[in-house]
Design goal:
heterodimer, A: 288 residues, mainly alpha, MetI-like fold, two-stranded antiparallel sheet, 1% strand, B: 20 helices, 44% helix
Chain lengths: 288, 386
């Protein structure tokens, strides 16, 4: 029996989407439903989960207010510092670097990703520890410098770890830039600086927004870097979750915190999308 | 540790030949030969030698792999090599950072552990949650209750049933680098004062509510196990006051102490012995005002996939000849007088590992309720996020 065009197209669509849909349903939707169910439960007497229907866990969220506050502060600050470092790099790669070397330079940005973040963060522990940079400073007479286990070390680790995620989207949006627009701007008498601010920068903003959203969202769940470079003294939601599941075994409270975190991520993403739409004047911007 | 590893690894063909020649010459016993070459299991299964390896468990099918959950730096790798050689069972070792983490994993299920190492205060909880079952001591003939120091082994028994057999005991004391810290550190009161004074920015506390809150309570003159709200409030006040002075909140303190990034830390016996052995200026003291004494046990999870192998390894580890090597490697004190008799004098004479009885008197065993108390968990979260 011959299929109509529409039926055929529908079949192809189904076949193409089936693997991803099954995957997302089993490994994202189902666990999320389990998490929501846990979050309205109670902690068992010796920890774990006990069936119940209560919003007590959500009412208790202020007990982790500090973790939320630290995280909601760190995520945009970390993203901002990433942006400050990433934008000039991406601009250089996309606009200034000679096309012959561009591919090599871009791959240099990506190469660190081939090594586990854990290993690279451990390397920072040795660089910042007293046998690393402080030891060198000591040799030139600057004694007793402490770098490891400070908020500055955490920020450094974050900028280092997330930089490629910020550089790449900005690079892509700058690379797509139509050079004729820059020439037109110059022809009309704009100085390079005003060309940058009124042409280049606005046209690269979708890339900037993508990078900022990507880094901010990942930072909201960051656990490793504060734990290793902050000496466990810097407490984020990720750290709170690990403690609740593995130390005090308060699964319902941990679930409530995780559900709330997901809600925050969704809101952040929607706001970022709206801003990106407004800036570019179109709804054709995809953030991630 | 590497020395032991090499000495005991019975693998190379050349060594096998050498041992065989020694056996033929009669200079070693047949038992020694079978043990050291790993032919023990084959002999036990095929020949059914009565009394050989002295364990009925070995007659069962042990499979080819088993899984052990334990603590970091806590075993001699050669022990497992020897066990594999004797039984044909390879041991997969999983290392954990806290009892809560082990409990969380067992509660979640599907661990596949056949033997694990819980600490004294968790055993009644495991038994209550039906996660472990009473041990069949007939399968552990190498264990002798008469040679055990019951002070450390009592908590393996719940409601008259033996759920866990002792591994070793230990204490939680203070390790400090005497090159850097010149103040007197003999108590937990001193610890928190020095941490805010001479060792500011250089002291570490555990990322573990039981010991960190417990030792803060002790320094204020309260019980290590207190769950009284007013006493916990005072401990919280102290911890939050100390926090800006701390180098880190981390139970993995050996790297920082070795690198002299940290000068002083809360420290478990075996880590203290290892640090002091390698870096003599790192001293280990017990709080004169109190602190924790503990014992670790072996238990078999109810969900174990390969119980025969779990019992076989347990019995193997209860053999004093094997246990003595474990104790030399990990530096923790033994509960078994048979093992004590085999240990070299420099181990038994080490005051870090075997302190004077008087130093142990003020110490307390952690209690089950201390581990699971939600108020202490919340206090720890406030301390860490402060």
């Amino acid at each position: 029996m011959a299929l109509t065009m529409t039926a055929k197209r529908r079949l192809v669509t189904t076949a193409l989407l089936a693997p991803a849909s099954v995957w997302l349903f089993v490994f994202l939707v189902l666990p999320f439903i389990a998490m929501v169910i846990f979050s309205v439960g109670e902690r068992g007497p010796a920890g774990g989960y006990q069936a119940a229907f209560t919003f007590a866990q959500y009412a208790n969220l202020p007990a982790r207010a500090a973790a939320y506050w630290n995280t909601l502060l760190l995520a945009p600050v970390g993203a901002f510092f990433c942006l400050v470092v990433a934008y000039p790099t991406a601009y250089y790669l996309a606009v200034k670097a000679s096309p012959r070397h561009r591919l090599l330079l871009v791959s240099l940005v990506v190469v660190p990703f081939w090594t586990s973040l854990l290993v690279r963060t451990y390397a920072w522990m040795y660089i910042l520890g007293s046998r690393g940079i402080p030891n060198l400073l000591d040799m030139i007479g600057i004694a007793d410098v402490r770098l490891l286990n400070t908020p500055g070390a955490v920020l450094l680790g974050i900028v280092y770890g997330y930089l490629p995620l910020m550089i790449m989207p900005i690079y892509v949006s700058l690379e797509k830039l139509d050079r004729r627009l820059l020439e037109a701007s110059a022809d009309l008498g704009a100085k390079p600086v005003s060309t940058f601010f009124s042409v280049t920068l606005p046209l690269s903003l979708p890339g900037v927004m993508t990078g900022v959203a990507l880094v901010t969202i990942l930072l909201l769940g960051e656990y490793l870097i504060p734990q290793l470079l902050g000496g466990g003294k810097v407490f984020f939601i990720g750290n709170a979750l690990v403690d609740l599941f593995l130390q005090s075994r308060n699964w319902p409270f941990g679930s409530a915190i995780a559900v709330t975190l997901v809600a925050i991520v969704v809101v952040v993403l929607m706001v970022a999308m709206r801003i990106a739409w407004r800036i570019s004047g179109t709804r054709q911007v995809d953030l991630i | 540790m590497s020395k032991w590893f090499r000495e005991n690894a019975p693998i190379s063909a050349r060594e096998l030949t050498d041992e065989f020649m020694r056996l033929k010459r009669g200079s070693v016993s047949r038992r020694h030969f079978l043990g050291i070459t790993g032919l023990g299991l084959a002999a036990a299964v095929l020949a059914r030698q009565p009394g050989f390896l002295a364990s009925p468990a070995y007659a069962e099918d042990l499979g080819s792999t088993m899984s052990l959950a334990t603590w970091p730096n806590y075993h001699d790798p050669a022990t497992f090599e020897a066990f594999t050689a004797a039984t044909g069972v390879a041991v997969e070792v999983n290392v954990f950072g806290s009892n809560e983490e082990m409990l969380a994993k067992l509660q979640a299920g599907g661990t596949g552990w056949d033997l694990f190492v819980p600490t004294n205060y968790t055993i009644s909880t495991y038994a209550g949650l039906d996660l472990i079952e009473p041990l069949d001591l007939a399968k552990v003939p190498n264990f002798d209750p008469k040679t055990q120091n019951t002070r450390f082994t009592n908590e393996g028994t719940v409601d008259g049933k033996v759920f866990a057999l002792p591994k070793n005991w230990g204490t939680t004391g203070i390790a400090f680098n005497s090159d850097k810290v010149k103040s007197k550190v003999t108590s937990w009161k001193d610890f928190f004062e020095v941490a805010q004074g001479e060792a500011t920015g250089r002291a570490m506390v555990h990322d573990y509510q039981l010991t960190t809150i417990g030792n803060a309570l002790v320094s204020l003159g309260f019980s290590f196990n207190s769950i009284k709200p007013e006493e916990l409030a005072k401990a919280e006040e102290l911890l939050i006051k100390v926090k800006p002075h701390l180098y880190a909140i981390n139970s993995d303190y050996q790297p920082s102490m070795r690198a002299t990034d940290a000068w002083m830390t809360m420290c478990w016996t075996n880590d203290g012995a290892q640090l002091n052995r390698d870096i003599p200026e790192i001293q280990f003291v017990l709080g004169t005002d109190g602190g924790e004494i503990w014992s670790d046990f072996y238990a078999i999870p109810k969900s174990a996939a390969n119980k025969p192998a779990g019992y076989a390894l347990l019995n193997f580890l209860m053999d004093p000849a094997n246990a003595v090597k474990e104790h030399i490697a990990n530096g923790a004190p033994t509960t078994d007088s048979r093992v004590l008799a085999l240990l070299p004098a420099e181990v038994t004479g080490n005051k870090i590992v075997y302190p004077d009885e008087a130093a142990l008197t003020p110490l307390e065993f952690g209690a089950a309720v201390t581990l699971t108390d939600p108020a202490r968990a919340e206090l720890m979260a406030r301390f860490k996020s402060a």
